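User: I've been trying to design a sequence by hand for this structure and keep getting stuck. Would you show me what you'd pick, starting by listing the structure so we're on the same page?

Assistant: Good idea, let's start from the same input. This is the structure you sent:
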């Protein structure tokens, strides 16, 4: 399992295609949730994923929510190998990259409520009541670094 970390302009067309396909397959098709997947954030994000035998098995992206205050957002977290610890491992790596490479002081995310405990295990705290986004229940969470 190889860890890959790339800015948008470092992605080749095959990597970009695999990332977009994975995100649409999971967030749009599997969750039956039509929403604006291409949101113009990818161009400013770090794309982080685990690859195995040429296939992306887990993915997330990091981007500055506020670069001046070093607040980072983490999102689009996907693991194809569920309940095997891959998502937790990827989150650990993403947090380390946010801290070490982006000098993050805080990391924000909006978690689907069913996955809230995954983030709590990494130290994230709920900072909002639950709300619906694109028909799926979420909570806002933060990690102070």
């Amino acid at each position: 399992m190889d860890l890959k970390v790339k800015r948008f302009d470092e992605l080749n067309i095959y990597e970009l295609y695999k990332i977009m396909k994975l995100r649409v397959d999971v967030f749009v098709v599997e969750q039956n949730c039509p929403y604006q997947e291409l949101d113009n954030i990818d161009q400013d994000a770090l794309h982080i994923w685990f690859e195995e035998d040429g296939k992306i098995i887990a993915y997330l992206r990091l981007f500055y929510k506020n670069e001046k205050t070093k607040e980072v957002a983490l999102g689009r977290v996907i693991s194809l190998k569920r309940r095997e610890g891959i998502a937790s491992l990827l989150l650990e790596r993403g947090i380390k990259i946010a801290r070490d490479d982006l000098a993050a002081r805080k990391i924000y995310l909006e978690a689907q409520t069913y996955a809230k405990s995954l983030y709590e295990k990494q130290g994230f705290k709920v900072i909002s009541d639950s709300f619906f986004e694109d028909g799926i229940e979420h909570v806002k969470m933060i990690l102070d670094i």
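That's my pick for every position. To get oriented when you compare it with your attempt: Residues 13-30 form the longest helix (18 residues). Strands lie at 2-7, 46-52, 55-66, 71-79, 106-112, 125-126, 131-133, 136-144.
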